[in-house]
Each structure stands twice: as structure tokens, then as C-alpha cells.
Amino acid sequence: MGRVSFEHIILDIDAGLATLTLNRPDRGNAIDPVAAAELRAAALQLSYDPTVRAVLLKANGKLFSGGGDLAGFAAAGPAALPRLVDDMTIDLHAAVARLAKMDAPLVAAVTGSAGGAGMSLVAACDLVVAGRSAKFTMGYTKAGLVPDGTSSFYLSRVVGLRRAMDLVLTNRVLSAEEAEQWGLVSRVVDDDKVISEATALAQQLAQGPTKAFGLTKRVFYAGASSALEEAMERESASIAAAAKTDDAQEGIAAFLAKRAPQYRGR
Question: Which CATH number is 2-206 given?
Fold first, then answer.
């Protein structure tokens, strides 16, 4: 499909890899109603594109995202702000839901800092590559607000409830190394290698068994809060569903033949 340029984001699709770039560098890639609506539109487009087999989320500029556009919130005024943030978070949540439900794995490349909604987006990704100088903070309650961006679901599953409460109540800032130790970040690399490393990882995943990836994601995210019996039944149903795919037949044949599999995402 090539490139689609929105006002605050850029969407590129090439060889099975979709790259979603936050593109508001002059405002620290802050999320405003326009950016949230565009993320929803892009996520919806990706969810209907069968050629997409991995998604890379990155940002232009020095920051990944500073979170919600507080300057825009202030400009809206007290009377209009509740409706503004309600509309905005509905779009943002719809975007995250679509990306999370896709079979395609979602990889984040974090340079600079990720705060507020930016950190919430990071928590919702399947894998996260961060630069050594990256910083992470929730920051919502520091501004008298409540976390959004699906962080109440993903953050506690990623770092644990006790640590999540520490992050949202004290607004402590995590270094990249701390974020990796806590499980928020998958791997830390030199700042100048973040994009190349994350892109290579996403490209690798784009060559994998996409249907199996999707089933695996749903099994693990649901299993994090389900009863044992439900988890076991879900696993049985999911591996049976995966066994029906062409990729499973190719993977088994390649393993037995001691060759690299050639997956097609079907």
C-alpha cells in the first residue's frame, strides 16, 4: 500500500511490515483528539489489511511521546475539557484494542521518553525496544488526572499490580534499565540502534506464523487473569485452531526436514 500521511501520524506498509510513526515532534508527540482519531483510523485500516504481519510503532523527534496534550487541555477550558478527554480516550482505546487484537505482533521502538499516554501505548505493545537513555513515567496523577490508554489493563499485567500502583501514585521515573528489569521493556540497546534493532525484530516477526502469533497473544493476555481450567481449555482450543493453518503444516514439515520454514501468514 505504501505510505499514508495523516496530520499527526504516518503509516507505511511494506513487505508485510506496517510502520506507524507518531509525527508531532514539535509538541513532543503529545496525544490530542486529532492524533487519537488518526491512530484509530490507522489501526482500523491495518486490522482489515491481510498483508500486514507485524506492526512497528515509533516516533519522530527527540521524544517517543510526552502523553496527553496538556496545553490543548488547558486551552479547551474547564467546561469543554471533560467531553474532549472522553472523546479522545474513546478513540485512543479503540486504536489500542484494534492493534492488540490483530494477529500481527506489535513492536515499539522507544527513543527519548514515554510519558502518560505514551507509556500506556508502550505497555500495550507485545515487544518493546528502548534506547539506553529512554525514560518512562505515568505522570497522570501528577496533573490531577487518571491513567488511560488501556494502562489499567496492560500495565499491571506487564509489571505487576504493586509496581503499577507505585508508578501511577508516585509518578516515579524509570530508566531504560529499570524498565527492562520490571518487564516493561523487552530489550535495551544503544540510542542510535533503537530504530534499526526494532525494525529488524519486526521484520523477523513479519516472516513468522502470523495466525499462531495471534492465537498465542490472546492465550497469554487472557491467561494472565483467568482460572487455571479456563487457561488450559483456551490453550487446547488455540493450539487446535493453529494446527488447521497452512503455516503449522509448513512449520512441522520444515522441522522434520531440518530446514528453515517459509511461512505465509495463513
Answer: 3.90.226.10
Query: For residues 186 and 85, what is the distance between their CA atoms, to the nearest angstrom?
Result: 30
Contact call for residues 102 and 95 (beta carbons, < 8 A): no
What would the pLDDT profile of 24-33 be if each residue is shown by its tens digit?
A: 999 999 999 9
Q: Parse the chain into domains and list their residue ranges.
A: 2-206, 210-257
With beta carbons less than 8 A apart as the criterion, state whether 89 and 36 touch. yes
Q: Which of 77, 96, 128, 79 is nearest to 31 (CA)?
A: 96
Can you state the percent helix, strand and coil of the chain, rounding each to 5? Answer: 55, 15, 30
Residue 208 CA to residue 55 CA, distance in Å, equals 13
Residue with cell 498465542: 216
Q: Where are the alpha helices (DSSP H) in the chain?
A: 33-47, 70-76, 81-101, 117-124, 151-159, 161-170, 176-182, 194-206, 210-223, 228-243, 246-257
pLDDT tier, 248 (very low <50, low <70, confident <90, very high otherwise): confident
CATH topology classification for 210-257: Lyase 2-enoyl-coa Hydratase; Chain  A, domain 2 (1.10.12)
pLDDT higher than 70, residue 111:
yes
pLDDT tier, 1 (very low <50, low <70, confident <90, very high otherwise): low
Residue 21's DSSP bridge partners are 10, 58
